[in-house]
Amino acid sequence: MTTLNSKVPKGDNLSEKWSKYKEHINLVNPANKRNIDIIVVGTGLAGGSAAATLAELGYNVKAFCYQDSPRRAHSIAAQGGINAAKNYQGDGDSNYRLFYDTVKGGDYRSREANVHRLAEVSGNIIDQCVAQGVPFARDYGGLLDNRSFGGVLVSRTFYAKGQTGQQLLLGAYSAMNRQIARGKITMHNRHEMLDVVKVGGKARGIIARNLITGEIERHSAHAVVIASGGYGNVYFLSTNAMGSNATAAWKIHKKGAYFANPCYTQIHPTCIPRSGDYQSKLTLMSESLRNDGRIWVPKNIEDVKAIREGKLKPTQIAEENRDYYLERRYPAFGNLVPRDVASRAAKERCDAGYGVNATGEAVYLDFASAIQRYGKEQAKIHNINNPSESKILELGEAIVEAKYGNLFQMYEKIVAEDPYKTPMMIYPATHYTMGGVWVDYNLMTTVEGLYCIGEANFSDHGANRLGASALMQGLADGYFVLPYTIGDYLADDIRTGTISIDSKEFDDAEKEVKERLDFFINNEGTHSVDYYHKKLGKIMWEKCGMARNKKGLEEAIQEIQEVREDFWKNVKVPGSLNEFNQELEKAGRVADFLELGELFAKDALNREESCGGHFREEHVTEDGEAKRDDKNFAYVAAWEYTGKPSEAILHKEQLEFKDIELKTRSYK
């Protein structure tokens, strides 16, 4: 085992590290940038912003996405907002407070220097996006509006209704289009990266498959950037797009990039409950709804039974018979506790028998109090004396609609109930992955010249991500961090010239890719790819989900190995190689998930503590909260691939906390 070098700048105050570091790194002059190629895999907020910025600087960028357009990246699904320490509300926000909240929210399992840098550049992101025309919500005076999110006591979340991800992605996409038109970005839509190519130990290209024709292509560059998102679909059912996958990240892991903290996954507390085995994905209800929605279950088990049997409606339950359990357990933060805390609390109530839907896996998210509050406020504003109850409801619903209208509309279409009149039903679901490819301060992996940004890396969120911080990290990496740090590396490549694709390294990588694809097409199996994906997802949810224990994790490792062995013997992939073949695409992705899932369980078994989204039932406090072990586990677990997930070698990056006191996380 080696100790990893994070390459965090030595000395200086934490608040000065990034600014001083930028002042002393190597630069590439504009004329030389024209001679350097960079591959960017993924065109979501991280990849799109990186591609646009690098091309704007003068580099030749080759961008790849498996979708038909960069604007179809999963970033488009983000709803609630993006954090930044602008302090527009005058409520005491600052870069330090954003830094502190993020480290605390991650349960003290993230790298201080990276998180502080994220907080520093957060304000620049908002300025950049406003300049691009992103239509952020504004207050009455025309200034940008903010709302609160979980785990903080200030309002720092900028938003565009419930479509923030879409609007931010369109901003990045417009910046990309400008560079595509100039010829600085060569866009490869409907292409999937299937391997990275190393020449002399450095990342020098990729092997990609044209998903329309099936053609295998070689692409070279002086550096490769992976921005392919997270691995939440290892659970099969998640809030991720069905196409979201871990293949790019897993391929580079198998070529030498360490994979960090795979057990750190986030279960989002406000999702539409699962309705049956036929589902292929779950739907997120934005955390922003917890600003105004109150979460509760009935106090009396008799009321729960009556609701399940259809004999009682939630609106008929008196206020004194409702258990607003987050407000009861966490009075300081109430309904705005972090996601991991809210998710476990919902699970605890449902496990105790208080779940309110037919499966017993749902709690209420109720807007009645907010509608009343806003309605009475609006009546005063409009000088309406003694307003009727119907008028108060009308005025209040109009305010709620202005803030969350598209989310309410989406809920009603899926559930066929009006959330203005009846409380929403929600339940936790797999959402975001804090684990990912290990990167140093420069966002470089353990492979020279190979970078990883956005959700695909592990760097900023520790064991739990605060809401509205994913968009912040993706755009920070792409717009304001990578363009500096990659230049420091590429300064040594100004005389290298074009990287040839006619080399043994490219030959070997292409041969390996083709052999795997040939296997899938020619294997005479009996089960579909989804058959195995669902089996894996069931194991992951039941034994590596919201709660984990030693026995379950050991069983999960064994069961995943058995499913993987059966997959390679009995998977059936219809169609042919040289055509549009989505089953072939899925086969490769599920093969990767079947390896990643085992490493996930291995990592969770190794981490004998509870922290953030990783909750070990053996390690809890007397009142049921997560119990960290800072003496033995205040480190990043970075795994080296050696042939099998079961044989992965653990490397540790010890975490240091110099600017924040390492203490028990509390939201009470």
Automatic annotation (TrEMBL):
It catalyses: a quinone + succinate = fumarate + a quinol. The active site is at R339 (proton acceptor). Gene3D superfamilies: FAD/NAD(P)-binding domain, Fumarate reductase/succinate dehydrogenase flavoprotein-like, C-terminal domain, Succinate dehydrogenase/fumarate reductase flavoprotein, catalytic domain. Residues 533-667 form the Fumarate reductase/succinate dehydrogenase flavoprotein-like C-terminal domain. It comes from Urechidicola croceus. Belongs to the FAD-dependent oxidoreductase 2 family. FRD/SDH subfamily. One of its GO terms (biological process) is anaerobic respiration. It is found in: Cell membrane. This is succinate dehydrogenase. Residues 37-471 form the FAD-dependent oxidoreductase 2 FAD-binding domain. It comes from the Bacteria. The keyword Acetylation does not apply. One of its GO terms (cellular component) is plasma membrane. The keyword Hydrolase does not apply.
